[in-house]
Structures are given as structure tokens and as C-alpha cells.
Amino acid sequence: MKKSAAEAHRMLSNTYSEAAISERTMILTSKTGIAVEERRFLKMQNWRHYLIKTRVKIKKNWHDYWDSISHFKTPQSHGNDSEAWKLGAVRVEVERC
To answer: Which Gene3D superfamilies does this chain map to (predicted)?
Structure first.
């Protein structure tokens, strides 16, 4: 006989009273197969992975761009060249993350 999450929770709470898990945890566990706390942790891990991946991508693009223009101009050789100084600002921003 298949039971719903609410029925299963009622049976557990009748058996274990205070030690039974909450109804919300029971429902989320039965739908996803993962406990609520584990779901929050997985979301945090995914967010951290996304940030690291983005940071690496920005650094890589910056280095590729710098290599492509470095033989044309540098901040030292052209004084206050706006394009070269923008590159320096991007690098500082990426390292600060």
C-alpha cells in the first residue's frame, strides 16, 4: 500500500513523537529524495562553482586580450591611454574577487 508524505509523517510522529522530523522536511525528502539541509548545501556549492568559473573565464579573456594588443601599446609607453588603463582596471577588479 502506497502512502502519501503526510500519512508517512503522521505514522512517524505517532511512533517517535518529538524525535520525528518535521512535516516540511518529510515532504521535501519524499519529492526530491534529498533532505532539505542537503538541498541548501547543494545550491550553495553550485553558486560557489559558478563564481569560480566566472572568475577564471574573466581572467582568461583578459590575458588573451592583453596578449593580442601588448605588442601595439602598453600603459607605460602611451602615458594616459584610456584603452590600456581600462585593461588595468579590469585586472584589479578580477583579482579583488
So the answer is: 1.10.10.1450
Model pLDDT for residues 6-59, shown as the tens digit of each residue: 787 677 777 776 665 555 555 555 566 655 555 555 556 666 666 666 666 666
Q: How far apart are CA 78 and CA 52, in angstroms?
A: 34
In a domain, 25, yes or no: yes
With respect to residue 79, please indicate whether it lies within any of the assigned structural domains: no
Whole-model pTM?
A: 0.22
Q: What is the largest CA-CA distance in the chain?
A: 80
DSSP the chain: ----HHHHHHHHHHHHGGGSPPHHHHHHHHHHSS-HHHHHHHHHHHHHHHHHHHHHHHHHHHHHHHHHHTTT--TTTSSS-HHHHHHHHHHHHHHH-
Total tally of structural domains belonging to the chain: 1
